[in-house]
Structures are given as C-alpha cells and as structure tokens.
Design goal:
single chain; about 700 residues; mainly alpha
Length: about 700
C-alpha cells in the first residue's frame, strides 16, 4: 500500500513539474532551464510573500496545479515530441531515478554528517508561518541566521503535496539533485551530438570522482573473497558457514567502497598518514610515492582540505546548501551558452543577474565565486566585441534582490563575523595533494585551449576558474573552526564548486573538439576519473539496506519499539517545546524525537549553535542546565521548565535513580507516560499537566 501511495505521489509531482516546465518554456530557450528556473522562481515568489503573511498549509494547491498541468500537456500534445519535451523529460526522469535509488536504498536521516541539521532547517518552514519562522532548535528565537532558501524550497514541496518532514527531505533531495544533470546534459549538447559522450560526461559528474579516485585504487587494496566461497571449497562448507562468509565479504566490500568514496573527497589531512601504514589494507610504497608527507615538525597536524563535489552529495545524502550552489552554477553556464548562441538573450541576461542574489540566499559561501564567474562572462563579451545588455543584467539582479530583501533584513544583521584572511606557511595545500585532486580539471582546461572553435570562450573561463583556484590558495574565510580545520570549510565549499563548473564546461568543449587527439585525451581523463563509479556500484550493491523504502527517514531510530511508541505519542500531541538531553556537543540523538514530529526542541546541538551564532554564553549555560536536569541535580527543576515553556520531556537513556530524582521534582506539574518494557530502564515522556 505504501508503494502505491509513493508511486501516485511521484506521478502527481512529475505532472506538476512537467506543467511548470512547459509553462516556462514559452520564454526560456530550453527545457532544462525552464524546469530549473521555473522551480526556483516559483519558490522565490512564495518566499517573498511569506515574509509578509504566512500561507499555512498549501495542500489545497496541488489539485488546481495538477489540472492546469494536465491541460497544458493536452493542449501541446501534438508538438511535444517535435519540441524535444519527451527527450528532456527522459533525461530528467533518469537523473531523478539515480538520485531516488540512493535515497530509496539508504533513506535514513540520521546523526551522521549534516542530515539532522538539514532536516531541522526544513522543519522550521513546514508550518507555513510568517517568515522568519520560530527556530525549532533554539526556541523561542527566530530562524533567520542561515542561508536556507533551498530548505524553504524543500518545505514548500512538502507543504503542497502533504508530505511528512522526512519524506519531504528525501524527495526534495532527489528533485534538486536531478536538475544539475539535466543542465549538464543540455550544456554538453552545445558542443557535441554524441549521446554516449554526453553520458560519459554526466556519469563522471554524477559519480563524484576527483583526481584522487583512481589513485586510491592503487593505494588501498580490494578485499579478497574468502576461501570458503571459492568453487573448490564451497561444496564442502555448511550452509551457515557460507552465509556467514558471504555476509562478512559483503560488509568488507561495502566498507572498502564507502571509505574510498570518503577518501576521494576527504583524503587530504584525514587519511594521509593512515595510507602509509601498510599491512593488509594499503600499499605503503605506493602511498609514499603518490602522497609524500612533509611535516615542519612532528607535532604538526596535516590540514584537512576536502573537495566535496556534486557527485559526492549523492553518497553523503545531506540536503545541504552546496546542492543548491551546484544547481545555480549549472544554470549560469547554460544561460551563458544560450546567450552565446543568441537565444532569448535579454531574458537570459536578466536571469544571469538574478543568479547573484539567488546564490546569496542559497549558498553564501560561493556567493563571491558566482560574482567572479559573471565577471569572467562580462570579460568574454567585451573580448568578443558584444556589449552585454546592462539594463537586463542589472534589472534581473535588482528584481531578484528585491524578492530576497525581506530575508536579508534579518539574515545580514544576525550573521557571525567571518573575516577574510591570507593563507600562510604550512596552511597551504601540499603540492602533491593539490595536483592529485585537481588534475582532471587542470588537464581539461589545458586541452580546451587547443580547440580553435571555442578558444576565446575556453581562454576566458580558463582564466576565470584558474584565478579562482589561485585565490583559494591565497585566502580563506576565518570561521569559528581552527587548527587543522582552519581552511576546511572554505576549500570544501569552493573547490567542489570550481571543480564541477570546470569539469562540465571544459569537458564538454573537449569532447566536442574537432581534433581527434583533444577528444581522445578528454575521454581518457573522464574515464579515469569516473572509476569512482566502481566504488559507487560496490557500495550501492553491498551496503546494508535494512531500511530500504522507509522514506520517512526515521526507521533507523523507530525500529526500536519504545522509540516508535514515543514517536506516535509526540506526533498526535499538541505542538509545544520538547526537552531532550544533550550528552554531547553534536552528532547525537538529541532533537530526533522533536524534529521528526513537528515540535521545537528547547536546544539543539550546542557546537552547531555556536558556529551559527558565535560564542553565545547562553548556549553553554543552557547546555549545562540541561545536563544537570537529566542528572537529577538541577535545583528548582519545575520552575526552570516552566520558565522555558517546556511541554514535553523525553527520557530515553538513564538509570532508575535519575528518573526517580527528576520525577520527584516535577511530578506536581508533569505527568509521566512510560514506554519501557518490563525489566528495562525507564523510558518515556513527561507531559505538562494542562
């Protein structure tokens, strides 16, 4: 029954997206742009309106938009095939399917990486209140300190189609991740006709390989099949022994692929020294040759310098701002090529201007890079003696700026100070790691310069992306992290964005080159880089899929019967602030009960709140108070709870004496509902007596 519901939901969502695409195609030069810009502009208008009046539930909207979409499809049925609509929908459908395979197979929204934080961002917008909404992680503050337009878009999808917050997360991820592939496919079509070569470029993008990916296969050894599973031994083994060996081998293959995908993005500073240890796991001699380590002193910590590109996002599963940043980047490149081809020049120029404020509210980290990219395009237009349409460019930027202005009022006043600083001394990237990571795009950039047809375009953007790489080695954003993580956030956001733009643009130019040696060289570069696909397939094939299809995202937690019953209790309870323990500073179960069940939590992860708000003493004071409460030794617990308007108190881990101490202090105002089984420690929820 759930699969039938899911299939119907996906069909309705597709119908609405198809109608929106057809509607916007009247003005935009291709279906890829019409779909992507249509979605973003639709959300941007609602984003603007809801800063003045919250529209609440929007589930009344989809029947009308579905009928309108069906009418558009019917009206245009005779020319859909000739216009290329079905081909464009096929590309989008396959791209969505690839993302859906990831989220359907591994749907858990758990405490690894930033999944819970992204879920929390989406949850803030799910009730459709006037923006900025209340902060579900720091009640009763407002959520206006983070660039969360992408999360608003996800919540808008959930509100229109009546999805729970977890399913909203997973399906929005699939939609947003599918769009860059459609844009990359269309962009490649400007330079080449071969579907196979376009597929190679898109696959390289989607697999997320970096220059390190093929080298890792030389350094890290593939697990060997157990002897018991080999043909000459398998007949002599028991069925149980064979099953155990198969499970063990699958786990080893999955873990090896998992680690290779992580290392491809995060090798530098996180796995360098481990690779030199040798043994059964690594080839130490190869590691020493490819990745030499040169420390200024034994105590020096290698700087953590990750490159998290577009394809890596499928694997990590975070609905995080870099996804939106990649989407706007690909939109920008397609707009530039549309202008170069003299297609809807004025409107495309206006949309180029609009990408700058859009990037500001989607992924502020790469906002300066987006501006620099447009400067590269402007330089190209003057070089080609084609004066840009300044009125359209400025007008598009101003109009989009006005639409985001209500958000910027709170966002710009509440940000943490993050000055720009120079990279000095040993904080620079070791040359072997820099070349190792970036060599595919460096090779494609060099090859593109030899293509005579697109030499001006290639030269302009080789300079643009080359300067961005150089700048990334000269400056960084000084956020609250330090030590070996001093440049981590900067390069993680910048390098991935630069890598994706260069890979798609220069890869397409080279694959479409008339000179065979350029095309052949590019094919080799892309094939080598796409060897990351080996790890993608091995991981998807062998990973534990215990929660497959549970798109609500909480099955990893509610598989426990007591947790499931507590979820059900909170889901039907009136909205109110939930108190959950914070035993650690981040990446813990705290807030899981509240966020999945549309409730604000008194306080989320302290270290993240510090990152977003700066060193706020109240965060650490509250952390200590919460820990003291759960230890049973906070004085005046009842008054403290009342002062903070706590309606529900989750007790899911602790000893009986702690429960007894807490209950003795608050039982006059809070009723206990226990969900523990006989003989188990206390587990349940206190609810404020009404």
């Amino acid at each position: 029954m759930h699969l039938i519901y899911l299939a119907l939901t996906l069909a309705i969502i597709w119908l609405n997206l198809a109608g929106l695409t057809l509607f916007c195609r009247r003005w935009l030069p291709n279906f890829a742009l019409a779909r992507s810009l249509g979605i973003l502009l639709f959300a941007l208008v609602f984003f603007f309106i809801e800063h003045f009046v919250g529209l609440g539930s929007l589930n009344w909207l989809w029947p009308f938009t579905s009928l309108a979409s069906a009418y558009l499809l019917y009206q245009r049925q005779d020319d859909l095939k000739a216009s290329g609509f079905w081909g464009a929908e096929l590309v989008f459908g396959l791209a969505f399917l690839y993302a859906f395979v990831w989220r359907f197979s591994l749907p858990a929204i758990n405490v690894s990486s930033e999944r819970i934080t992204d879920l929390y961002f989406i949850s803030n917008y799910m009730n459709g209140v006037t923006l900025p909404p209340d902060d579900n992680w720091y009640a009763p503050h407002k959520f206006d300190f983070y660039y969360a337009f992408q999360h608003y878009l996800g919540a808008l999808i959930g509100r229109i189609f009546s999805l729970d917050v977890g399913t909203t997360y997973n399906l929005s991820f699939c939609i947003l991740m599918a769009l860059p592939i459609t844009l990359a496919w269309y962009l490649a079509g400007h330079f080449l006709k071969s579907a196979w070569l376009k597929l190679l470029l898109v696959a390289t993008l989607a697999f997320g390989g970096t220059g390190l990916s093929p080298l890792l296969h030389l350094v890290y050894k593939q697990p060997t099949e157990p002897q018991i599973l080999q043909a000459e031994f398998i007949d002599k083994a028991s069925e149980q022994d064979i099953r155990n060996a198969e499970n063990s081998y699958r786990h080893q293959v999955s873990n090896h692929a998992f680690m290779n995908l992580v290392r491809g993005a995060r090798f530098t500073g996180s796995h360098d020294e481990k690779a030199h240890q040798g043994g059964d796991q690594t080839n130490a001699d190869m590691a020493a040759m490819l990745f030499p380590i040169d420390k200024p002193n034994p105590q020096f910590e290698l700087r953590v310098l990750p490159l998290e590109n577009y394809g890596y996002q499928f694997f990590v599963g975070d609905y995080h701002p870099p996804i939106g940043g990649f989407l706007i980047l690909l939109i920008t490149l397609v707009l530039i090529m549309s202008i170069q081809s003299q297609q809807a020049v004025r409107l495309c120029t206006a949309m180029l201007g609009a990408t700058v404020p859009l990037m500001l509210i989607t992924n502020t980290w790469v906002f300066p890079l987006q501006g620099f990219l447009l400067c590269g395009w402007l330089a190209l237009t003057y070089w080609q003696k084609q004066k840009p349409d300044w009125l359209a460019l400025i007008g598009g930027g101003l109009l989009a700026g006005l639409l985001v202005y209500p958000f910027l009022i709170g966002f710009t006043s509440g940000g943490v100070s993050t000055p720009v600083k120079l990279v000095t001394g040993d904080d620079h990237t070791p040359w072997a790691r820099f070349i190792g990571m970036q060599w595919p795009i460096l090779a494609l950039m060099l090859l593109a310069l030899f293509d005579r047809k697109w030499r001006q375009l290639a030269a302009a953007f080789v300079i643009t992306f080359g300067l961005l790489l150089l700048i990334s080695e000269m400056i960084y954003i000084d956020d609250p992290t330090g030590g070996k993580f001093i440049r981590t956030n900067t390069v993680m956001k910048w390098w991935g964005w630069i890598y994706v733009g260069a890979l798609v643009l220069f890869g397409a130019i080279c694959l479409g080159a008339q000179k065979v040696w350029i095309k052949a060289s590019a094919i080799v570069v892309l094939l080598i880089t796409s060897t990351a696909g080996i790890d993608v397939v091995n991981y998807l094939t062998h990973a534990n899929k215990a929660h497959m299809g549970k798109l609500q995202g909480h099955e990893w937690f509610t598989g426990n019967p007591a947790n499931r019953d507590m979820f059900a209790f909170l889901k039907q309870a009136p909205r109110g602030i939930v108190l959950e323990n914070v035993p650690n500073n981040a990446y813990m179960h705290s807030s899981v009960f509240a966020i999945f069940n549309d409730k604000p939590v008194l306080m989320g992860w302290p270290s993240h709140l510090r990152t977003w708000h700066g060193e706020v003493p109240q965060v650490w004071k509250m952390t200590e108070q919460i820990r003291s409460f759960y230890a049973g030794n906070l004085g005046s617990s009842r008054d403290w709870l009342q002062a903070h308007r706590v309606e529900y108190i989750v007790f899911d881990a602790g000893q009986d004496q702690q429960w007894q101490a807490i209950n003795a202090q608050i039982k006059s105002h809070y009723d206990w509902f226990g969900f523990n089984r006989n003989g188990e420690p206390p587990k349940g929820i206190w609810q404020r007596r009404r």
